[in-house]
Amino acid sequence: MSEPHMKMVLVTPEIPYNTGAIGRTCVALNLELILIKPYGFSLDEKSVRRAGTDYWKHVNLSEYDNWEDFLTQRNPPRENLHFFEEHGAQSFYTPEYQRDAYLVFGCESAGLPKTILDGMEDRTFNLPMLDKRVRSLNLANVAAAVVFQAMRPQFI
Description:
- The protein is of the alpha/beta class.
- It is built from six helices and seven strands, in the order βαβαβαβββαβαα.
- α1 (16-29) runs parallel beside α5.
């Protein structure tokens, strides 16, 4: 299997356990983890390392001071950006994900800022939830579901 170039992007993550778990998933799938500041924790915290277990040292990690810094330095093609929000216009099953896609997730309490999502409605996706009593899903669970769907063609 050739090495994927897909990237997981967390914008202002707040919960160290989620970031650690997502980092561990990135190691397992040879993905880059991109973190956009500010964080709700320190990357030195035990809780990040605990969730990532002894894999955290292997995370291919890039950090940016803010969204604009990320856009300026990376200049990702619009068609490679996939934003995930509970109220996204389309199902995450809809797109054909590029091998070099950026899978972008917001912070746990507020999701992605409106300023990032403006004009990106066609690039914004949701995960279906059948019971309306559930307001949202855990970020690490969503990220894992999304990345396995995005990489599905590589596994079948």
